[in-house]
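Hi V.,

Quick status before I head out on leave. The structure for the redesign project is tokenized and pasted below; the design run finished overnight.
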């Protein structure tokens, strides 16, 4: 077993300025999936685009919007979102409270972004 916390993990920033913590990653030897935590304030958003890997997302704080090619849906605490491989997507926060979510992706999928 391996234990960690956000307090023990380095905060990084995405290209759009969103905070992300790689909690369980390839570097510690996970065999299949990596676990990340995202947090961002009012008016901020993730980059719009798609990737050749799936995402599983669980909202743990705040409210926001997830956009896709033909979809825009409000999300809130307790919502779980599946984003298929190559599906266009973006998360946006229009609320005063930070939008925070846990995101699981296949091991090594975003290796370049962690360097």
């Amino acid at each position: 077993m391996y234990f960690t916390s956000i307090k023990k993990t380095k905060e990084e920033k995405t290209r759009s300025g969103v905070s992300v913590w790689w909690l369980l990653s390839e570097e510690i030897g996970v065999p299949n999936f990596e676990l990340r935590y995202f947090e961002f304030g009012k008016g901020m958003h993730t980059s719009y685009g798609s990737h050749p890997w799936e995402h599983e997302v669980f909202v743990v704080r705040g409210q926001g919007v997830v956009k896709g090619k033909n979809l825009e849906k409000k999300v809130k605490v307790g919502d779980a979102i599946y984003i298929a491989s190559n599906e266009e997507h973006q998360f946006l926060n229009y609320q005063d409270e930070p939008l925070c979510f846990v995101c699981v992706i296949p091991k090594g999928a975003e290796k370049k972004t962690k360097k």
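Above is the designed sequence. Residues 29 and 107 are 9 Å apart (CA to CA).

G. will cover questions while I'm gone.

Best,
W.
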